[in-house]
Amino acid sequence: SQQGEEDPQALSIQEGENATMNCSYKTSINNLQWYRQNSGRGLVHLILIRSNEREKHSGRLRVTLDTSKKSSSLLITASRAADTASYFCATGSGNTPLVFGKGTRLSVIA
Amino acid sequence: DTAVSQTPKYLVTQMGNDKSIKCEQNLGHDTMYWYKQDSKKFLKIMFSYNNKELIINETVPNRFSPKSPDKAHLNLHINSLELGDSAVYFCASSQGALKNIQYFGAGTRLSVL
Fold first, then answer.
1. Is B43 on the interface with A (CB under 8 A)?
2. What's the confidence (pLDDT) of residue B67?
3. Backbone angles phi, psi at A42, to 5 degrees
4. Concatenated DSSP letters for chain B?
5. pLDDT per residue as tens digits for the range A9-61
6. Is there a contact between B73 and B7 (Cβ–Cβ < 8 Å)?
7. Is A94 on the interface with B (CB under 8 A)?
8. Distance (Å, whole) CA B103 – CA A9
9. Which DSSP letter does residue A99 get?
């Protein structure tokens, strides 16, 4: 069954603005991952946050995890046109495969 | 070098035909996957192999048959193609536990006419 649900489904912002995407999930997890998919390409791993972590940074990316609310957010600061892509969260738990959400389509307008 | 490569990138075929998609990873990973991504971008796992052994077989028609000749290769053969099989198929690999980071191929866009 589907685990992660991203919100919003689509987001359009101006270059330089920050973009925030949210992910909610239903069951307990070991980790939550964010992936990016450019048009016509495969998914690329961005960042992994473990269930005992609350925040993680990687360059212009900031991920938070609230296990009590079963939610995570991905913040992209100072967005660029090259950030235009779909972003997926995926939850990892136990010995089961990652479960991906439906993604947020981000458009960054120059 | 491409870490996870799959061929072909595009596949256009008629209903009822049989086709194969090949995948190879040079990352030394022990686990490989096939995913189907539909027109709404929903990514659904189909199969997973660990060291050539099938470990995940989701509810997929038995017209789909994966084969792993060695842990670096995972191929997908599809018999009697149907219109509903049209989608993008992704191969991926990972090391160790199934919840670990996955590395994806560029995808194969299958169009069944």
1. yes
2. 95
3. -85, 170
4. --SEEEE-SEEEE-TT--EEEEEEE-S--SEEEEEEE-TT--EEEEEEEETTEEEEE-S--TTEEEEEEETTEEEEEE-S--GGG-EEEEEEEESSSTTS--EE---EEEEE-
5. 999 999 999 999 999 999 899 999 999 999 999 999 999 999 999 999 999 99
6. no
7. yes
8. 24
9. E
Q: Does B107 touch chain A (CB under 8 A)?
A: yes
* Residue B62: both structure tokens together: 């038995």
The two structure tokens encoding residue A12: 């359009």
**Which chain A residues in 4-43 lie under 8 Å from chain B, judged by CB atoms?**
30-31, 33, 37, 40-43
Task: Tell me which residue has tokens 């160790």.
Answer: B96
Q: Which residues of B touch A37 (CB under 8 A)?
A: 41
Report the SS3 class of residue A82: helix
